[in-house]
Amino acid sequence: MAERTEARHGRATVPTVLRRLAEGAPLVVVTAYDFPTGRICDQAGVDVVLVGDSLGNVVLGQAGTLTVSLADMVRHTEAVARGVSRALLVADMPFLSYQPSIAEAVQSAGRLLQAGAQSVKLEGGSFWAPTIRHLVASGIPIMAHLGYTPQSIHRMGGPHVQGIGADGRARLLEDAQAVAEAGAWSVVLEMVPGPLAEEVTQVVGIPTIGIGAGPGCSGQVLVLHDILGLSGRAPRFAKQYIDGERLLTDAVASYADDVRNGRFPGPEHTHDGQSWGRGGAPV
Ligand code: KIV
């Protein structure tokens, strides 16, 4: 459990993030999964760091998010929490951590808050309104998630655009209204047509955070490993900013090459019994 998290950090809170948004700046949200990625995202100045259950795909090498456990999310949230001192920290409620009952949802969300998160995210719309209402009444801020929801991959048949046709549009609008009325402070819209995401944003009354939903949302979220080029094959809607796979592979290959050719370790990396390398502090 993170000790005295609320006293230790100077993090943004849900109210401060909402105020920032009201001042006109779109919300910047990015995922992180461990201490260094949490620290990097925080230093980069994003508004919200999300410990996503995309952990399963991009960090644990699993086929999807269904195999991510609450214990996984608690462990990774604790690690990210140690690296985040400015942004608001949100953690995903993994599959089966809120579905069985409202009481279990409160327990699971509570564990994630004890791990250092300040809000939790859960997937689904109108059906989850009573759960959201109960969590919010229990003091747990909720980020909802609509459109393509990876925990429902088997029902949806794959990562397909949602909100298509008159029925799809009506359902998405109804779900967005339902989670907002239940007290969610924001809602992720994943893989939703741009004009529909914009319409939801205009009517729903809480911030919309788009991923594959166009520029008409109140903010954007991307998976860190897609930004960094570390996810293998990023979806079309993501933007890759560096070829991390190439950069990191080259770095490790350079190290291997240095060892094999006697260039590492050098004198500066070698303890001589007096001091640590060139002018370094004695060890
Ligand atoms: O798990 C995750 O990374 C997410 C984002 C894509 C919103 O839910």
CATH superfamily: Phosphoenolpyruvate-binding domains
How many beta-strand elements?
Answer: 8
Mean pLDDT: 94
Oligomer: single chain
Radius of gyration: 21 Å
In the CATH hierarchy, the third-tier topology is known as TIM Barrel
Provide the CATH top-level class. Alpha Beta
Most strands sheet: 8 strands, parallel, barrel
Uncertain runs are: 1-8
Given the structure, what is the number of helices?
12
Helicity range of the residues?
40-55%
Category from helices, strands and their pairing: alpha/beta
CATH architecture descriptor text: Alpha-Beta Barrel
Total tally of structural domains? 1
The side-by-side strand order for the widest beta sheet comes to 1-2-3-4-5-6-7-8
DSSP strand content:
5-15%
Bound molecules: 3-methyl-2-oxobutanoic acid
| Element pattern in H and E | HHEHEHHEHEHEHHEHEEHH
Features:
disordered N terminus; globular; eight-stranded parallel beta barrel; alpha/beta; 283 residues; binds 3-methyl-2-oxobutanoic acid; 12 helices; TIM Barrel
Q: What can you see in these coordinates?
A:
This protein is an alpha/beta fold and 283 residues long. It has one domain: TIM Barrel. The chain contains twelve helices and eight strands. Strands 1-2-3-4-5-6-7-8 form an eight-stranded parallel β-barrel, surrounded by seven helices. Helix 10 links the parallel strand 6 (186-190) and strand 7 (208-211). Helix 3 (35-43) packs across helix 5 (70-83). The longest helix has 18 residues, at 165-182. The chain is globular, with a radius of gyration of 21 Å. The model is unreliable at 1-8 (pLDDT under 50). Residues 31, 52-54, 92, 145, 188, 211, 221, 223 line the site of 3-methyl-2-oxobutanoic acid.
